[in-house]
Amino acid sequence: MKILHISAECYPIAKVGGLADVVGSLPKYQNKQGITSQVIMPFYDNKFTNTHKFITVFNSEFQLGEINYPFTIKKLKNNSLGFDLFLVDIPELLHKKYVYSNDDTERFLAFQIATLNWILTWKVKPTIIHCHDHHTGLIPFMMSQCFKYDRLKMIPTVLTIHNAQYQGWFSHNKLNLFPAFNFKNVGLLDWDGSINPLAAAIKCTWKVTTVSPSYMEELIHSANGLESLLKHEVSKCKGVLNGIDTEVWNAETDTYLIKNYKISATQSGKKRNKLYLCNQFKLNSSKPLFIFIGRLVGEKGAELLPEVFEKALTKNELSILVLGSGNVEIEKQLGDLKAKFKGKYNSYIGYNEKLAHIMYAGADFLLMPSRVEPCGLNQLYALRYGTIPVVRSIGGLKDTVIDISKKDGVGIVHKNVAVNEIIEAMDRAVELYNNPLGFKKIRKRGMQKNYSWEVSATSYINIYKSLKA
Ligand code: ADP
After folding, report:
1. Does 32 share its domain with 153?
2. Pocket of ligand 1, candidates 327, 378, 400: which has the most ligand atoms within 8 Å of its Cβ, to mutate?
3. Which among 292, 373, 365 has a CA at the least distance from the CA of 334?
4. Which of 99, 140, 281, 457 matches a 20 to 30 Å C-alpha distance to 433?
5. What is this structure's pTM?
6. How large is the average pLDDT for residues 124-135?
């Protein structure tokens, strides 16, 4: 069985969020389970592509509207990722420093057309084509409707929704960019008057998965306008919880950490990482250290953080460190707090993979007051590194973090995205921190949870098998 994953992001090549982590690890675990799983993504102009060697396996050209673009398919020369990696190189459109911007429609449509043109030339076609999010959502439509891809029609497609908030909308004026298709079925592309790649994918794909079971249930009621579509298609939808790459996320071997540690030496290992963070960011290391890592957007509840931090820091003895970027106003407010709470609060506005790893290792608590959380990987990394998650009960957070008041609890859970509830949850965390025996017990329990890909990789393989029959 040969699976081709098609994605805009893949760790460590290009990462904006959790999508990259999933596409960079699931195929590796699928290969370990005896199937052949490969990845294709755009060739961006970034550190990875500039420092690795590739071989060209195919070159041709394709048409986007009136324009012909040359393209090549490149393959990563060494096989260090645990799967074959192919990159679509369209210099004019994809050689960019960024992954996403305001020219996404043309860029990702071109990426998808070039990918399908290449697959047409494969002697033995993929068994399954697995698309991820709206950036690759036009693949199932084009495979089933464009005359040119008639020979790919019988290949089953799977769409995984990592985040339904973003749907890739564009105007009907751009229909001329598509290869010729049966115009009678143009409605498959439309949702509410726009071309909607995510909606088109849900309609045309053979199977839809979401990255957690609870997120699947939630999408039927709230999916940024697509709820009725998902309700209609519910029989082909399934939630499969994301796993984590336990080779990358391993406190014993993680090369980003200041000090590696085994579960039996968690206390001393975490202490060294905490001391480093507190020195770097001028925080008091004797207090419980709370962190937030992520996109500073409404989905993550980030606009409440300045008020929450102001109140929590005034009331409690604690330290807070933030790593993230996003909404400019939130970035500013989080920056402004630094002067007011010197020694207690600091923030790093930007993206920093190494710092994120040290923070998961050095912190005591991770805050995730998310409004929407399809799966959430941060809480899984935190648990594995012995940092207790303080989360809002939603989506994947609901599926992975049980409150400490319950049997097998590993974190602190609040129901709503509200300033007072987040502060109450932080109060409970400080209380737990001040009870060293209880704190260590919960931390150890969280570290023993197994959220690796083994189980979920099998669920995906079972889905593929059911489509192949
Ligand atoms: P998202 O909705 O952003 O995809 P996830 O929890 O699924 O959220 O995944 C977020 C991933 O991105 C995690 O690996 C997290 O550590 C990483 N991340 C988010 N923001 C930053 C940042 N500013 N610097 C470094 N890593 C980050």
Report:
1. yes
2. 378
3. 292
4. 281
5. 0.95
6. 98
